[in-house]
Known about the structure:
The protein is α+β, with helices and mostly antiparallel strands. It has one domain: Roll (Thiol Ester Dehydrase, Chain A), CATH 3.10.129. The chain is built from three helices and five strands. The chain has a five-stranded antiparallel β-sheet with strand order 1-3-4-5-2, covered by helices on one side. The chain is elongated, with a radius of gyration of 17 Å. The two termini are 14 Å apart. The mean pLDDT is 95.
Amino acid sequence: MHPLNFHDIEVGQTLPPLTLAPVNRTTLALFAGASGDHNAIHIDLDYARRAGMPDVFAHGMLSMAWLGRLLTLWVDQRQLRQFGVRFAGMTHLGHQITCSGRVVRKYEQDGEQRVALEVLSANQYGETRVLGDAVVAF
Length: 138
């Protein structure tokens, strides 16, 4: 990661996209262990089926973590001032997720030069899974 300069950033500029490997059961199990979120709907096929789902699906917070990775590949995490998401759809096994972002505003606040971003994740079919926003300071 090379340092970015506030003056070189333009509204409308996109972040380098982050494309992940297809979601699999190992990814879900590892995230459950790392996060402490062992909700059976994400790791137990029988439980998911009893709940009316065809199979397990990714944790919402895993999807948010991928967007967080998109941001921290672009800037150092210490520059992040705000980050929030809204879950728009389930990420199922086999989905290959691509995270993307776009600068929507440049401004100054609290003595810092900042940019506001829109971020989102979508599967290989172009279906949005998570929508979010972030603020980064320079």
